Amino acid sequence: IDASESISMLKTKVKAEKPHTIHCDADDLQLYLASKDNGGTWLNSDGAKAVTLDDVQGFHMIDPVVWIQNRAHFGPNFEPSDGDIHVLVIVPCLRREVRRVALRATLADLVKKKKLHERDDDDDTSSS
């Protein structure tokens, strides 16, 4: 993406790159600078993979209405380097889906435990 474009355009392009993964509107994506010291040290691929949803509080959220060249983000003289990750993308709709899947798994476990418990109770009453 060209440095003169907006962060909103970056969101649109990220969504376009992953149409089978990102099912929400581009505006719903949350972008963070992939540096905890405002661009001093960028994450590499392994560092980015290690970031969890709880870890993003340590990163600076990118304002979606400004230009990529904005001083608060990358600045006018930004030169990307090979191997550096510059933006972390959080897909809120995926976060909700993960919660739903986890909830379904938990409910399934509870139902299974209840059935086992009822079966154990039936075994206890029939052996008496």
Automatic annotation (TrEMBL):
Location(s) in or outside the cell: Host cell; Secreted
Coiled coil: none
Span of domain Crinkler effector protein N-terminal: 1-89
Gene Ontology CC: one annotated term: extracellular region
InterPro entries hit by this protein: Crinkler_N
Principal subcellular localization: host cell
Secretion signal, residue range per the UniProt entry: none
Keywords noted in UniProt: Secreted
Record protein name field: Crinkler effector protein N-terminal domain-containing protein
Organism, scientific name: Aphanomyces astaci
